[in-house]
Specification:
19 strands; 6-stranded parallel sheet; alpha/beta; homodimer; 7-stranded antiparallel sheet; Nicotinate phosphoribosyltransferase (chains A, B)
Chain lengths: ~450, ~450
């Protein structure tokens, strides 16, 4: 195995490249745009996530001997194309939404500029990363808004492919979760990790009491005991008998949670364990979290629903050629005409228009060419949404790694505050703000 | 970055391990079982996939310096546990369903045996791989049955995280797809790759005709031209004018496919291109494929729906302790008691019971202990479903790599034939055959 990411690519990108090298169009200056035509599931906003991961993967997007041999042996491309790929390194530019930013239909999330050859080969990698991570972040942000001040832990690794699980933990963290069960996500992205024991821990022991005693011996009284392996009432009683009233918490992983949480709170208080927290972890999604708002719950653990985007596991973003030069060197805005998948040609600049600090529109200024597009600075009530991510092949490392992840989270939590109140509602609806396209000049 | 897979693990597995090393229960012989309580989405069968990938990942499940440092610095486990992990290598045994096999509620898909310490740490990795890959394979198998003799290509990489995309291509192939657009899946798993051109190819050129001409120049007349960038009727006419009536195929990626496919077939035939194939690729799932059965379509390309499990992106499998020894060395079957998540304790042997070659039941023989469980050989009308995958730490490499993938596909296509006709129906229902639990002895 190599660490190259270059084959995480659909074959047609390389066959197009081969044909373009042959007819000379490979060198045409081109602009590709990554955007979403709509918000999946009647969501009121989307959350951009994956940008930092994408930039790191782009560093490894090189065709080494192994990759070239596979392409040669499989007859995927011809000798001229192999030669081009051997030296390939993305030397174009990418600007786009900051990771953690909100997006709406038509928001120009990423704009990739270079020759056609430079940019066409990044389609699959860019979409894979952003579609997955943004789907998770969008669901996670809704959950974190529904949870209010109560902390959320992501614990869905087992319900996602092993590497997506790490990416999902990161996306959930950016969108407001406070911790993850996934150790690799802790190592790679600096996310706090959590977790104490499963049902197997209790079942391994001859009695529940033995299990609780051993856990406290190892992890201290401040630990969280899982009390629903046998009978919850007995479990809680045993937990407090063994740990004392200073027990950190109990975890409930089954049953009708509002009913069970209320009963357990009453029982804990009656036993004098008024400071013992209640964690719930059974099949939660944003709706279940909202329904628990009035219940005595202190901590939510969310699994399946967050890593699978709560019903919408992919964000539906696309990567389209929106402008390219003609043989005379003039820019031409281009777009597919088919009625059900139409897109908007031209280069775009995006602003969030605010009124009294509240977002009222996603303003997208469209230009056919490379004319200077007015910037946010000229609009006192607008916030410019795009930043430079890759400049002439140079990747801005501020967006990568642990630091990039932390700053994406801060950015998300900050810009989410700009949204009108209707953005908080969980029901299906139109986007919280409209996207307004404006012609440049 | 290291290639270790050991941190693709939920933190609680290591905290349980630490506590068990401390109280001595870590050494208790234990049996964990990976199974599904139900079939997601009212599906009539599930398809086991991921086994070959899991075995390869298990080879790299070792705690190296980097992993140990992270666990130490983060205070995840104590010194005794670090010492244990430093030498950890799975030395237990795993037997289970062959990859590509069908499964039903309660099927003992994997059985992991060893000490508690051996087996508890594999929970997340095993579930991540099998839940994802089986969800994709289950959806893919339904699509491939709906497509009948018409070939299917998987092209959903852009709608899945970059590494899951590779795993999804493999799972779809095992379940009957014939090819993938994903080059890495071609390299790693030997899956045929496909793909020619996107809309950007046409938009890059000054005219559609220029684009078609250049593609044919590069890829030959046998290529497939994408004809829906502007007007489909004009696109088809241009395609045949440029390529001649020997054009390999045209691809349709938008519109109402039954209507459009019929019109394009009529047009192609009228132009004399009676051998030109029609590929359709727009938002297909098993229902859309079934609805196109009477349409003149030759080839399906499926994206989003297959890589996201067509509405059910995770299989919902769990990994539970089902038996362990007590201090006297006697085996005890164990199970969680909670009513909504109850599971069945004991060690299990599984058989598909057939009548006249048609499956009638999933028979699961349950034993509390390690008594010999009667094998399939003793049941002339049954097929034994479990094979040894890891024997005392030795991994059977027949299930791994390109060869393991190909043989899983063969196995799937063979055992699918045993199913009763009702298994073919796409509507939500009970499983196609019941699971019957029988006590051993």
């Amino acid at each position: 195995m190599t660490s190259s990411t270059a084959l995480l690519t659909d074959r047609y990108e390389l066959t197009m490249l081969g044909a373009a090298l042959r007819d000379g169009t490979a060198a045409r200056p081109s602009v590709f745009e990554l955007f979403s035509r709509r918000l999946s599931g009647g969501r009121r906003f989307g959350v951009v996530a994956g940008t930092g991961r994408l930039l790191s993967l782009l560093r490894d997007f090189r065709f080494g001997d192994d990759e070239l041999r596979f392409l040669h042996d499989g007859g995927v491309v011809d000798a001229q194309t192999l030669k081009y790929l051997e030296n390939y390194r993305f030397t174009g530019s990418v600007h786009g939404y900051r990771e953690g930013e909100l997006y709406f239909p038509g928001s120009p999330i990423l704009t990739v500029e270079g020759t056609f050859a430079d940019a066409v080969v990044l389609e699959t990698l860019a979409l894979s990363v952003l579609n997955h991570d943004s789907a998770v972040a969008t669901a996670a942000s809704r959950m974190s808004m529904a949870a209010g001040e109560r902390p959320l832990a992501e614990m869905g690794s087992r319900r996602a492919a092993e590497m997506s699980a790490v990416a999902a933990a990161r996306a959930a963290f950016i969108a407001g979760f406070g911790s993850t069960s996934n150790l690799e996500a802790g190592r790679q992205w600096g996310i706090p990790t959590m977790g104490t024991a499963a049902h197997s821990w209790t079942l391994l022991h001859d009695t529940e009491e033995d299990a609780f005693r051993a856990q406290i011996e190892s992890l201290g009284t401040d630990t969280t005991l899982l009390v629903d392996t046998y009978d919850i009432r007995t479990g809680v009683e045993t937990a407090i008998r063994v740990a004392g009233t200073g027990l950190g918490g109990v975890r409930l992983d089954s049953g009708d949670l509002p009913t069970v949480a209320a009963a357990v709170r009453t029982q804990l208080d009656a036993l004098g364990a008024t400071g013992t927290k209640i964690t719930v972890t059974s099949d939660l999604d944003e709706y279940a979290i909202a329904a628990l708002a009035a219940s005595p719950v202190d901590f939510y653990g969310v699994g399946t629903s967050v890593v699978t985007g709560s019903g919408y596991p992919t964000a539906g973003m696309v990567y389209k050629l929106v402008a390219r030069q003609d043989p005379s060197g003039s820019w031409v805005g281009v777009a597919k005409a088919s009625t059900d998948k139409a897109s908007k040609g031209g280069r775009k600049a995006a602003f969030r228009t605010l009124r009294d600090g509240v977002a009222v529109a996603e303003t997208v200024v469209v230009s056919d060419g490379f004319e200077a597009i007015s910037t946010g600075a000229e609009h006192p009530d607008s916030r410019s949404l795009q930043v430079m991510l890759v400049d002439g092949g140079e990747i801005d490392d501020a967006h990568e790694g642990v630091q990039g992840t932390a700053s994406a989270r801060e950015h998300h939590l900050r810009v989410r505050e700009e949204m009108p109140v209707r953005a908080l509602a969980l029901s299906k609806s139109d986007p919280a703000i409209p996207t307004v396209f404006v012609d440049a000049e």
